[in-house]
Amino acid sequence: MFKSLIGQDQVKSRLGFYANLFNAGYVVPPIMLNAAKGLGKTAFAKEFHNETKQGKRKFMEINCGSIRNAEQFFEQVFLPQIAGKEVTVLFDECHALPKDLTDIFLTAFNVEGAKKKTVSVAEGFVEFDFQKQIYLFATTELHKLFDPLKDRLTIIDFKQYTDAELVNIMKGKVDWINYGSGVVESIVTTVRGNARSAVKRVLQVKSWCELGKISNMCHTEWNKMQKKFGILPFGLTNTEVQILRALNKRGACSLQMLSAITGMSRQAIQLEAENNLLRKGFMDIDGKRKITTKGTKILEQIK
Amino acid sequence: MNNNTKRKRGRPAGSTSFARVKIADLIAQLGTNFTITVSKKWLEDIGLEVDSDKPNRVIAAVESEEDKIQFTIED
Question: Which of A153, A296, B1, B64 could connect to A32 by a Cys-Cys bridge, CB 3.0–4.6 Å?
Answer without folding.
Answer: A153
